[in-house]
Amino acid sequence: MTYIGQPVKRVEGADKVTGKAKYAAEFNVPDLTYGYVVSSALVKGKITSIDTSEALALPGVLEVFTHENRPKTAWFDMNYKDMDAPPGSPFRPLHDEKIKYSGQPIALVVAETFELARYAASLVKATYEQEAHETDLEAHLAEARDPAVGVASLLKPPPPKPRGNADMAMMAADVSIKARHVHGPQHHNPMEMFATTVEYGKEDKDGKPYLTIYDKTQGAYNSQLYVAQIFDLPFSHVRVISPYVGGGFGSGLRPQYQLFLAVMASKALKRSVRVTLTRQQMFTFGHRPNTVQEVELGASSDGTITAIKHDAKAATSQFEDYTEVVVNWTGMLYDVPDTTLTYKLKPLDIYSPLDMRAPGGVTGDHAIETAIDALAYELGMDPVELRLKNYSEKNWTEGDKPYSSKELRACFYQGAERFGWKERNPEPRSMKRGHNLVGWGMATGIWDAGRLFARAEAILTVNGKLRVSSATADIGTGTYTIMTQIAADTLGMPIEDVIFKLGDTEMPLAPFQGGSMTISTVGSAVKQVCEDLGKKLLKLAGKDAKSPFYDANWKDVTFFDGELRLKKDPHVSMKLVDIVALNGGRAVSETSTSMPNPLVSGKYSKHTHSAAFVEVEVDEDLGTVTVKRAVTAVAGGRIMNPRTARSQIIGGMVWGISSALQEDSKMDHNYGRFMNHNLAEYHVPVCADIHDLDVIFVEEHDDIVNPLGAKGLGEIGIVGMPAAIANAVFHATGKRIYDLPITIDRVLY
Amino acid sequence: MQTTLSPPAPVENASAALPALGTVRLTVNGTAKTLQIAPWTTLLDALREYLNLTGTKKGCDHGQCGACTVLINGKRINSCLTLAVMHDDHEITSIEGLANADGSLHPLQTAFVDHDAFQCGYCTPGQICSAVGLMNEGQAKSEADVRELMSGNICRCGAYPHIVDAVTEVMGIEKQA
User: Fold this and answer.
1) Do residues B95 and A18 make contact, with C-beta atoms less than 8 angstroms apart?
2) Is A715 annotated in the active site?
3) DSSP class of residue B95?
4) Which terminus of chain A faces fewer neighbouring Cβ atoms within 10 Å, N or C?
5) For A456-472, what is the mean pLDDT?
6) Active-site residue among A134, A320, A407, A715?
7) SUPFAM superfamilies attached here (chain A) (predicted)?
8) Where are the beta strands (DSSP E) in chain B?
């Protein structure tokens, strides 16, 4: 039996549908106290006084922490840098009287009950001295500058140097188009609000406590590092546990301030503390930055693109240079000799932006793929045909490396076929359904297929059960299920006998879950450790000179149906449970490390691709846009589990619809504050907004990305959707809407 | 410039204004529970923080997301928008009470697993309770009705197509072509 490639149902499914799955704020800890955060109403300036006396006078209120009385923490910036920190000086909660952004935490009230803490927080009074602030990117574009370079740049390379002469080539082009795209900030808004439960344990001889921390994070080790460094605790004293995460989408890649505040309070009060942010406070850390992009394309009349200019300017905070890859994708998709790609930042009085599903990718893709559609109209060419004509076989932004695999052509063909693209009349406003205009649009998507270092442990118990673990996360991606499938297949065991655990710093190191890298990174480690355990089992089985496995080598054997077998004679077998029995009553365990071989994988550019096809209906009287159906064809390597893979892509498509039509964090620049900081006014799709979504996985073989041949699917589903929707709106209405989201006002005026 | 931006204290003597704890009797999933809680405790917090029934989720605390949906006398309700003291003598059913006594799952729970109608799982208890309420209401006759009437429950992972598949299957509604 093999499980990889099968639509195995989520192994944690029953826990999730019965309410047994525990998230960070749900662990039952004795003598728990509750922290409630007070947020700054000011955007920039300083606190001149903060009066906590009324709050402290309430019986049951234990303490109100502010910058005036907070316990001492680490001094150096370095200590506050988590594994995903961009270059700069990380924000320190309650550090001093300075206010750097609206919503900044200025106090933490800790009380015996949640209700009391919440009420007491309303009694904390601050007075401020206000300074002029600046939150408007578009008003300050001229001041945008090159981003600082740091460790984060390794995963997020800056744009390549310009090649050729894009300006000259643009002038010489037969046809050219130029467009400017603006989109606002977006907030992740996972359904679970950020929360940390700190269980205060015993103290060592120096009085340092052992803390068990249930944190909402995409990387347990990242939270551990952050806490240990800031609070001067040995790693052995900081255990971070995070078995379930109620959505991440990037928001959990960095420790958020409730973690700092909960640990600070717990350590100071010597009590267990839970801090949960409010939905409003979910708008006070990290977001997809607003960007302004300009794209120019030139082409010869046969459709060959001859010149590209793509410039992006993004907002960041005053304290960190958050960057993302926005314009490089354009170079990867279109290998044009005369290309200039540029990316700049403008610091504003806001919190640092934060990776949000396909960070930069969905941003840049929207601009370039809308421009390609406009160019197709200028040329009188079909948009699919134009893309096929300019198909890139290598990635010049990475020094002309070939792609490890790239079945994007198949995505175009199969997606178009399923959608019925050949029936399309390219003429805008040519299709109607009842009262509504109908439009068809498409776009290409691209994302990284990266891989990092990870460790995993595998234990075969005396009962013949396999326990595998690695401190990765499952933010809904399917990690639990797919790792279980990999382990079961590698050691030929029935899936019921295999359990995979994650999200605990007592487990072997894994990086945070992000960038669509988990399958490649942790999946490879799980495969590796199961093979290594298998070798140990073979050795054990062959220890006795009379054993049929005595002189068997690894290549001579196979694992199947809970047995070790000789390949040449499968009747010669030994049950795994019997092999363990030879280990003197002890389980057999192994821990392994897995990392890519840069000598092999470094020679290739590794990416996922997609083609998104969308049908919209537009009501021109009301300005409403509805995505009636969409087909996304994905080239994502080997599909480990079609059931969870489909959910990943469907989810990404819903995010694409959301990004194109709904999501927008509205900043009031007078107050420097996001005004729609709740789920009624920050629009995300509900059930009624989502119609017929279809997913195709095209066959793609890749021996380079990792030993599994699988690529991550977390981001690729969103990438092409906004451009495909914008292009469909153009086809429906004849009106090119450059900015996102495409809301009623933009359709009507 | 000096500015005071925090709201003024709602009462002159805050401490004296703290409400006294009172006895609340809740019947949750068929079991009677007695709690000593302040009257400003929401039903959601009573379930999560006082009864350790954390299957009911807090997603916004404002009745905007549906994650806290439970059933009261069979009707779906946002438990964050109602106080526990208002539910003496009511039959409250949370996600923990949907499965049968023998542990076998409610048909909607099974259908949600079968159709992969969730990813992170955080909105799932609310979605399932909401779907039970929807079925009790008897209003939904078509897939479009289900989509409309399930729109009070946000799923940020975007599992909506699979949620609709799961609910329509259990209700015996034919998929639209």
Assistant:
1) yes
2) yes
3) G
4) C
5) 98
6) A715
7) CO dehydrogenase molybdoprotein N-domain-like, Molybdenum cofactor-binding domain
8) 2-4, 22-28, 31-37, 69-72, 75-78, 91-93
Burial track A327-363 (b if 16+ CB lie within 10 A, e otherwise)? bbbbbbbbbbebbbbbbbbbbbbbbbbbbbbbbbbbb
Interface of A with B in 39-78 (CB under 8 A): 41-42, 48, 54, 57-59
With contact defined as beta carbons under 8 Å apart, do A477 and A547 qualify? no
At B44, which CATH number?
3.10.20.30
Beta-carbon separation of A18 and B95 below 8 A: yes
pLDDT tens digits, residue range A175-207? 999 999 999 999 999 999 999 999 999 999 999
Query: Which numeric CATH code is attached to A18-131+190-278?
Result: 3.90.1170.50
**Structural domain range at position B121:** 107-171
Indicate whether B158 and B136 sit together in one domain. yes
Looking up tokens 């590092």 gives A225
Number of Cβ atoms within 10 Å of the Cβ of A96: 11
Residue labelled with tokens 């806290």: B68
Same structural domain, B45 and B74:
yes
The crossing angle, in degrees rounded to 10, of helices B107-114 and B160-171 is: 140
Q: Is A132 on the interface with B (CB under 8 A)?
A: no
Contacts of A714 in chain B (CB under 8 A): none
Residue B106 has pLDDT above 60, yes or no: yes
Q: Is the pLDDT of residue B5 over 80?
A: no
Token code pair at residue B38: 């302040």
The C-alpha of B89 sits at a distance from chain A's nearest C-alpha, in angstroms, of: 23
pLDDT of residue A84: 93
Instruction: Pick from A17, A99, A689 the residue to mutate for testing the B interface (most B CBs within 10 Å).
Output: A17
Whether the pTM exceeds 0.90: the reply is yes
Phi, psi angle pair for A26, to nearest 5°: -120, 5
pLDDT at A627: 98
| Residue pair A346/A318 in contact by the 8 Å Cβ criterion | no
pLDDT at A394: 97
Give percent of chain A above pLDDT 90: 98
User: Smallest Cβ distance to B5: which of A21, A41, A687?
Assistant: A41
The answer to whether residue B76 is domain-embedded is yes
Q: Are residues B66 and B47 in the same domain?
A: yes
Is domain A139-187+287-450+603-748 classified as CATH 3.40.50.300? Answer: no
Q: Which residues of B touch A128 (CB under 8 A)?
A: 2-5
Query: Is residue B2 pLDDT above 80, yes or no?
Result: no
Taking the C-alpha atoms of residue B176 and residue B142, their distance in angstroms, rounded to an integer, is: 8
